[in-house]
């Protein structure tokens, strides 16, 4: 929500915006505010930089856990299919 507010402020009041045809437009609401309120708002990048590594590791370990659950489930399916195949063979020999 904060990012949306910052983007809205910067594009509607300060910098303007660029459309899909790469045409830059002036800020549409720039005349609605006094000149001392037309400052650009930015977020600091340090928190994002510091959280990137731990979040990446968390994502890797989460993927590893989900892959191990998938392998375990696949093993159970293989065992069940093997048991069914064995039962079919025993039934056909009887």
Describe, in plain words, how this protein is organized in 3D.
Helices cover 65% and strands 4% of the residues. With 94 residues, the protein is mainly alpha-helical. The chain has a two-stranded antiparallel sheet with strand order 1-2. The chain is elongated.
The shape, in one word, is elongated
What is the percentage of strand-forming residues?
Answer: under 5%
The number of helical elements comes to: 2
Low-confidence stretches are none
> On the 0-100 scale, what is the average pLDDT?
88
Backbone structural class:
mainly alpha
Order of helices and strands: HEEH
Range of helix content? 55-70%
Report the span from N to C terminus: 70 Å
Radius of gyration: 29 Å
The largest sheet, given as strand count, sense and whether it forms a barrel, is: 2 strands, antiparallel
Count of beta strands: 2
Short overview:
The chain is mostly helical. The protein has helices at 2-14, 46-93, and strands spanning 17-18, 24-25.
